[in-house]
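Good morning C.,

I know you're traveling, so I'll keep this short. The sequence:
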Amino acid sequence: MALEDAAKQMDMAFTREDLKGPSYELTFGGATSFLRRKYTKDLTGVDIAVTGVPFDQAVTNRPGTRLGPRAIREASALQAPDAPYGWDFDVLSEFAIADYGDLAFDYGHVSQFPAALTAHIKTILDAGAASVVLGGDHYISFPILKAYAEKYGPISLLQFDAHTDTWQDDDMDRIDHGTMFYKAVKSGIFDPSTSVQVGIRTTNEDTMGVNIIDAREVHEKGPQATVAKIKEILGDRPCYLTFDIDALDPAFAPGTGTPVWGGLTSAQTSIMLRDLAGINIMGGDVVEVSPPFDTTGATAIAGAHVATEILSLLGHRMRTA
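The tokens, ready to paste straight into the viewer:
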């Protein structure tokens, strides 16, 4: 496909015949799957499945993250159809990437949601694909991690966030976006000693043994030093990357459930995500994009770029495995 194809191609999310390659179509029209990938429930031959989880149960003060997956998909249509910038390969051309659509669940039976999400991700993993999840409030990472831990055993967590989300909560049935990593550690789902949280800038005295690189350290030492420290902590262990969009300063991502000043810049983040190439990443998510609180769409644009970088990190791992 070439640029001139935009004059005669549209709705490639439904009409394209394969799962690889760019999609040239009008940025302001067409079906808005993530990066114009093909919508399909057939995971045969899929390397990476992008899926949305429109769940919004427990954000602090600002609801609306259930609309995040839709907004991120729409924002992704603004990205150039060329290879993601700064990488030495094109993940969209080398790997079969599908938009697997959204998780279906009964919003009237909230208690059934976690098991439904774990089963959804397990279906993707059992098909031999990795998942990139568009959220949704941050609680969704807990059921997702359960599926990954079932496949890979206890893994390492790489979390970009303003909050540690390890506040004490021993009621394992509570659905709360601020306590799920406390529960994940307690459940043995990830190893805190080989995990790291980046961009933290809220007080929590019990970090459950997870390594912390707070926002000030990133600002003072820079992205390259931060990446070197992350890689040292993770080593070559299988890891899962979760990116809460409030890791970014509200100046760059105002549309989030829990904005906190003094955060990462989009420039710092783009450097760090690109330079993380080589980590043994198994999957990832971007969460807490809340479109109602950002009429500019900047937060969704940031979320779409983060998801694209996660795709590229997965592709880098797959092509060097």
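Safe travels,
E.
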